[in-house]
Amino acid sequence: MWITEIYKHDHRLQQLSPAVRALYWAPAMVLALVSSSVYFDWAMFALVNLSLLGVIRIGLSKLTRLYRIPVAFILLGCFVIAVEIPAQKAFTTIGQLPIGFSTGGLQLASLLLSRSLALIGILYFILLTNTISELAELMRKCRIPALFIDLFVITFKFIENLRQTSFEMYRAQRCRLGYSGNGKRIPLFASLMAAVFQKSMQNAKQLETAMQARCAGENYCFLQEERQFTLPQLYLPVGLASLSVAFLLICCNYGW
Amino acid sequence: MAGNLIELKAASYRYPTGKQAIAEVDLALPEGKKIALMGANGAGKSTLLLLLNGIYKPTKGELHYRGKQYRYNRKALRELRQKVGIVFQESDNQLVAPSVYEEVAFGLSNLYSDKKWIREQVEKYLDYFDLQELKNHSPHQLSSGQKKRVCLASVLSMEPELIVCDEPASNLDPQNARLTFELLEAQNKQGKTLLISTHDVNQAYAWADLVVLLKEGSVLSVGSPIEVFGDADTLAEAGLEQPLLVKLARMHQPHLAAEELPGNEAELVNRLTKKLCTDL
Q1: How far apart are CA B27 and CA B222, in angstroms?
Q2: In chain A, what are the domain boundaries?
Q3: Quick one: pLDDT at residue B2?
Q4: Do the Cβ atoms of B105 and A7 come within 8 Å?
Q5: Where are the transmembrane segments (chain A) (predicted)?
Q6: Mean pLDDT of A143-149
Q7: CA distance A235 to chain B (A)
Q8: ipTM of the predicted structure?
């Protein structure tokens, strides 16, 4: 599952300017980063996902599929942190080595898990409510160096190009009964990768030619549709940010 | 009388790999005409189109725009690329922006800084190409016909004098192909010069004012559709077939001279009906 496959142009924040949209995710991101409360992070994770379901109107199954790969990596990382070798309270032994979980490791892993999930949720929120050009424009307004922004846009475009090409080629191989035998899988996959990179380079070259033909310069210039700003647009994000800050203070105050 | 918009004078282009794509081409493209560039695969059509837009610089020879020699410095190339708009064969290789609106605004944003004017221009072309409802969509999620319309809108919004289209009807169903040609026809009526690369001899015969036949990077023949398509031997040499209308007319009258060929279907039907009435 890829972001570009489920991105909906008609999400509920579409009429807002990217700067106003940033008020929804920027405070959330800062609070998730500074918080040391597991409860707050889980609450933020839940809030962001509920917002994703409501704002983007994507199905729960699609949203769950988005989390599969990052969650797999995070769980693996958290497991490594939580495990203690040799452990004081072992749940198993391998040879002479007692393996178990340490209390400190478990606490750290739980904090890491909740914080990572909250941050990934916010990242998905950003990507599903903004186009890549809107993010680039926002970065430009934040005075981020042009080289970094161009690198960001180019990397995104190249990954997208690579994804599209590999999907088409993989499908073509499957149609010719590729990957049907166990012995063929690895050589076929290797040839797919080689062909995908070659084709992606060709596509990127053609895209560059097409951009040059329309006078593209050194920077990527995209002009978004003008969006009207009104004060009431700020009420909801400011309200949500205030509630989040209050909840974080409560969590810190009670040592949650 | 309108003069020539672009002239190629003994222009050649060799790829960095050493392959000669265009060889000593002399060609003049008259202003305000509908020109069909024809030839088999690998004849050099796409390379020629890129030469016209200044993407490729001829390795030998000269190109002139309105009598002035092409210059390949940054400023001159910007002017040239605004005047010569190119629509590529594969829409996916042209679409770069994340939304239709931004795609249409892309070329304009590169050329001008007045955002208000750019937005007015984008709105005008979104209306013209019936793309208002799709303006927030990602271009990659559109159908082939819609993508082609977005590509045309993004190039035409720059208001070029010469519109160059590489196989505009490829990957399109008949209805969308017809719509694309209607949109181009409307541009020609506004005085724009059209240059289209195509394999479709029937389309070129019915549509073009001037036909350029390419073979292995050289111009084999230039003339009106009747002149070029009336010459079966030259067409065969270029790897093309005669249009259906010409074939039917010659089935009816095998020794029909090129200048006597019917200009369209109605003319052929009239002739056949007249012949039938006379025979009866």
Answers
A1: 8
A2: 1-130+233-256, 145-225
A3: 65
A4: no
A5: 20-36, 42-60, 67-87, 107-130
A6: 87
A7: 25
A8: 0.78
